[in-house]
Amino acid sequence: MTRKSEGAAAPPFYVGINDPLGDPRTGAAFDPIVFHLYDAWASTLTGTDLKAQARQSILRGQTVFNTKPIAITGVAGLNDNPAFGSPAVLHGTCTICHDAPNVGNHSVALPLNIGLTDAARRTPDMPLYTLKNRATGATVQVTDPGRALITGRWADIGKFKGPILRGLAARPPYFHNGFAATLTDVINFYNTRFAIGFTAQEQADLLAFLQSL
Length: 213
Fold this sequence. Notes:
The chain is α+β, with helices and mostly antiparallel strands. It is built from five helices and six strands. The chain folds into two domains: 18-111 and 160-212, Cytochrome Bc1 Complex, Chain D, domain 2; 117-158, no CATH class. A two-stranded antiparallel ribbon has the order 1-2. Helix 2 (50-67) crosses helix 5 and helix 4 (183-193) packs across helix 5 (200-212). It starts with a strand and ends with a helix.
């Protein structure tokens, strides 16, 4: 199915397209190279003017998004997911969670807990909930119960569905609770959370790419 907007065709989409566990419709394996929006620039950008430099940065940022290795740890919904083998470390890139081609959201409903609601990240304007597991007696403190408010399941505490990335620059602040005021803050969060090790150039290029979407 291809959805069309006025004057342009949207990228093809169906539930499960390019899912990291395999495409349920075609059987195709996951392709981590999710964004191809600026591929043509790789062979056409030859100038050194400001416009060409800006486009080169966006193109490099697309490559960073598609290929920069990330050691994913401690993410409920991924690292504890038997479908992935419940790995302590899941080796991927940004696209393992943002897998829909040229759109960047997760193509199936897979809420994740990346740690945004941990009590340690609470700011004075946020609430703090203490939740207790009635079966085990375990307790956890979070600033938002997340999907657990809907399901009542302990495993869903702090889980949220990731957003579509297109038009991202027009939608600050970021994350469900406005935790990140700018896209730079978003990049810094992930860089710190997963010890990605972005260089200053990679951060600048990734920012240019995200702003272009």
